[in-house]
Amino acid sequence: MLNPCDPAFAAHLATMVPQDVLSAPEARYLEDPRGRWHGEAGAVARPRSVTEVAVIVRACAAARVGIVPWGGGTGLVGGQLMPSGPAPVVLSLERMAALRGAYPDENALVVEAGMILSDVQAEAAKLGRMFPLSLASQGTCRIGGNLASNAGGLNVLRYGNARDLCLGLEAVLPDGTIWNGLTRLRKDNAGYDLRHLMIGSEGTLGVITAASLRLYPVPAASVVAMLAVPGPEAALRLLTLASARLPGMISAFELIGRMGFDFLAEVMPDLQAPFGPVPEWMVLVELGLPASLAPEATMAALYDEASDAGLVTDGVIATSDAQATALWHLREAIPEANRRIGAVSSHDISLPLSAVPEFIAKAPAALAKLGAWRINCFGHLGDGNLHYNVFPAQGRSRSDHENTRDAVKACVHDMVHAMGGSVAAEHGVGRLKTADLAKYGDPGKLAAMRAIKAALDPHGIMNPGAVLTAS
Amino acid sequence: MLNPCDPAFAAHLATMVPQDVLSAPEARYLEDPRGRWHGEAGAVARPRSVTEVAVIVRACAAARVGIVPWGGGTGLVGGQLMPSGPAPVVLSLERMAALRGAYPDENALVVEAGMILSDVQAEAAKLGRMFPLSLASQGTCRIGGNLASNAGGLNVLRYGNARDLCLGLEAVLPDGTIWNGLTRLRKDNAGYDLRHLMIGSEGTLGVITAASLRLYPVPAASVVAMLAVPGPEAALRLLTLASARLPGMISAFELIGRMGFDFLAEVMPDLQAPFGPVPEWMVLVELGLPASLAPEATMAALYDEASDAGLVTDGVIATSDAQATALWHLREAIPEANRRIGAVSSHDISLPLSAVPEFIAKAPAALAKLGAWRINCFGHLGDGNLHYNVFPAQGRSRSDHENTRDAVKACVHDMVHAMGGSVAAEHGVGRLKTADLAKYGDPGKLAAMRAIKAALDPHGIMNPGAVLTAS
Q1: Could you write out the DSSP letters of every residue in A154-222?
Q2: Nearest CA in chain B to A440
Q3: Which chain B residue is nearest to residue A422, measuring alpha carbons?
């Protein structure tokens, strides 16, 4: 059993670190972006060094006090908030935001965990390189949180998930040991890959304090198009075609359904689709190209070939940076429109690529048995990752469906699971999906996870209740 | 303590599986390619299904009998051979070599662990795709072993190590539980990444029985060149230049030193360098290009730009497949020439890319204090992975240096470690480098590894003595 971070423990901990490291928890550490969770905490710790992190973790381990690691607070599944149980220490990495080293010739950057993602991108840009991780909250989220949750985002198709962009880690393990794995090696088979175990464990196996990151050359040119497609099946065939013609050059391939534009028309009417009438399905495609390929001509050639194959029916190719930005802005505004309309249930799911069209075709009929819905299905098609969000019918609100929400979620998740997919694709498990993990997870994997958790964190102090529920 | 697989246990085990699964160990299961190890075994098990594997593992766990998983037997670090201790069961996956599924539209293939790597490549080719893992032993090694050891090889720069080519795994855990993680998802954050923990653990945490693999489109054209460079520093700058000009299109970037050609001249005189006189340093570059880029012209443009920058001094661009094959054959013959000459000590090391030139510059002087050597330094420069092999001076043999071998190895490994590198880059730890891992490994990581091993394999039956020595 854990003990709370009560005033006595907070006072004890305060003697071990510089005076201003510990403070009472401000509201911002106890809220999440969607306003669905409210966390508890006995204190917030804001250390300035890995040594201070280690001191705090060791003291918490000795006293059996829980720790909730805190990055930018942007997680959508409650991984950064502990709503009940003995009040933990919130451990914010915000003061550990330094650049530790820049290695342009290696395409590598070493940063502390608290660096904001857009600052990581900016540091890479200073070197004439890019750090490809890109997601909606990049101005607020911090790289340690991105790694702890193995963030996805817009460029996974080409550059991989957060884990694929990490060469090495420094972390404090649950007993307060500092693991220095901050290497910059492209090949290293010296023992188990702790890095990949830590990445995606959502703070339950330790606190990431710094990371070596993989940078990429900036493509000489890029070109963006929004293409109307006959449907998801054609969109996937278009992706196969584009991948064969331009291997490794497709930076993004985003599916957008007409409902996304209906929502924009409803709540953000300044934003209009570049088509009239709006087609049922569209893809936003970005190519990042070498200097030897002319961007607009390359996209136009792809369009022509796809058109001949019946895979696109209409399209807009941006001919300026402003147009490209405007097309992206449409895609990026959809989550905000969703928020304003208010989903009954949102789902961050992934499927084997070839199962995506079948899922999109079948899910509405299954959901219709539970009520009348508007479905906004969009997402990172190249990764098989859909944000499949279910909204009330026009004129109704999410509060009308409080009693149906769980059934809607179960309907979607059951279908995804039956088709070989995952119900926690890029946002993680956090505390929102612990029951889903227990329900859908492979029993052998769950047992192994529990054994690893117990081995590395025998007192269960690291992010209690996240990912794995108390067994 | 483990028990041996004695005749009584072998007879007991034989009752649980079909009659021909268990047999006495033939010599081929007890030898390694370099003839440095000799293994012991009480029996060889050759199961046909994951269920049979599970039965065997469960029985061994109950009886505390060790298991040595066995793929193609090509490992270079003794991971597949147990030279001493209670005789284990050698568990060969050779009969589990089936294709479980082909998904060209997903760029995915599901195969059993015993499929030979070149057969995996052939299955991909049947789909018009490629499986990029490529290494010298590909006609013999098996994909399960490649994954267990996180194999590297020639195409890591572009496509990643074996772990990067794996979407999912099926494995039998040390208690006999079957973990079904054979998903084909590009994004899945549902819990800890057991896949990456299992990959590279060299059979010490379980037996991989099947894998979902990531395929890639075949480049429309490829072009190979051997370029003379002023030195390793220039070679790295050439790589940076090429990566910026042709991002994601450099399939291989191999460093070759003149000593490699001296050795070929000595023991395989039919193979001659395409230069006269042979330069001190060369790189073998392969580009894999889209149809829109003309291969020879693209390589020639790169050559010209590199030449203007002083990064190349001479070069041969293959103008036919036969010439390309011949250039590759030179590179691929070097390990065989090394074997014929007989190294005092071979080192599979990796370094941060920017440290490579300094290491290559400094190591000979350090080694000279121990004797007179010929050094053949070659390898996967784009990955910072060198095969740094130390040979006797001309006219002497490796047996003249038996007493110096450990000092040579320690000299190289100490330098690598001091420069932030790894002494187990792509071949793994096996049983050859357990002492190195204990010496150079981060103590926090080692403790975490031991805790994980004890949690998943409390009786220590899985590949005893590999990676981690008994603590």
Answers
A1: TTHHHH--GGGGEEEEEEE-TTSPEEEE----S---SS--HHHHHTTSTTSS-EEEEEEEE-EEPPSEE
A2: B190
A3: B188
- As separate numbers, helices (DSSP H) first and strands (DSSP E) second, chain A gives 14, 18
Yes or no: say if A310 and A234 are a contact pair by the CB < 8 Å rule.
Answer: yes
Total count of residues recorded for chain A: 471
What per-residue confidence (pLDDT) applies to A36?
Answer: 84
Give the integer Cα–Cα distance in Å for B344 and B402.
8
pLDDT higher than 70, residue A471 = no
Q: Does B222 score more than 70 pLDDT? A: yes
Residue that the structure tokens 């209690």 belong to? A464
Q: What are the two backbone dihedrals, phi and then psi, of residue B187, each rounded to the nearest 5 degrees?
A: -140, 125
- The contacts of residue A439 (CB under 8 Å, 6+ apart) are none
pTM given for the model: 0.97
Contact by Cβ (8 Å): B235, B196: no
Asked if B385's CB is within 8 angstroms of A440's CB, the reply is no
Overall average pLDDT of the B417-425 stretch: 97
Q: Measure in Å the smallest separation between the Cα of B195 and chain A Cα atoms.
A: 9
Rounded distance between C-alpha atoms, residue A343 and residue A405, angstroms = 10
Nearest Cα neighbor of B250 from B195, B293, B214 is B293
Interface of B with A in 318-377 (CB under 8 A): 350-354
Closest CA to A243 of A371, A382, A86: A382
Instruction: Give yes or no for a cis peptide into B132 (omega within 30° of 0).
Output: no
**Burial class, B95, CB count within 10 angstroms (exposed 0-12 / middle 13-18 / buried 19+):** middle
DSSP characters over A74-129: --SSSTT---SSS--EEEE-TT---EEEEEGGGTEEEEETTSBHHHHHHHHHHTTE
3-state secondary structure at position A416? helix
What is the share, in percent, of chain A residues with pLDDT greater than 90?
96
ipTM more than 0.90?
A: yes
Which residues 415-454 of B have a C-beta within 8 angstroms of A? 420-429, 433, 436-437, 440-449, 451-452, 454
Rounded to 5°, the CA angle B90-B96-B101 comes to 150
| For residues B444-449, average pLDDT | 98
B205 in Cβ contact with B456 (< 8 Å): yes
- Distance, in Å, from the CA atom of B20 to the CA atom of B46, rounded to the nearest integer, reads 8
Judged by CB atoms closer than 8 Å, whether chains meet at B184 and A352 is answered as: yes
Cβ <8 Å between A191 and B443: no
Question: By percentage, how much of chain A surpasses pLDDT 70?
Answer: 100
The length of chain B, given as a count of residues = 471
H or E element that contains B317? strand B314-317
Q: B172, B189, B202: best mutation site toward chain A, by most A Cβ within 10 Å?
A: B189
Average pLDDT (B277-303) is 96
**Averaged pLDDT, A331-356:** 95
Q: Is the Cβ pair B354, A105 closer than 8 Å?
A: yes
Look up residue A122 and give its two tokens: 């900016």
Answer yes or no: do A173 and B205 touch at CB < 8 A.
no
- For all residues of chain B together, what is the average pLDDT? 96
Contacts with B432 (C-beta within 8 Å, 6 or more apart), sequence order: B76, B77, B78
pLDDT at B372 (0 to 100): 96
What pLDDT digit, counting tens, does each position of A45-54 carry? 999 999 999 9
The token pair at A246 is 């331009």
The answer to whether the beta carbons of residues A136 and A332 sit under 8 Å apart is: yes
Are B139 and B72 spatial neighbours (Cβ–Cβ below 8 Å)? no
What does the pLDDT average to over A62-66? 98
- For the cut 70, the answer to whether the pLDDT of residue B471 exceeds it is no
Residue B469's pLDDT band (cuts 50, 70, 90): confident
What are the DSSP calls for B328-378, one per residue? HHHHHHHHHHHHHH--SB--EEE--GGGHHHHHHHHHHHHHTT--EEEEEE
Confidence of residue A33 (pLDDT cuts 50, 70, 90): confident
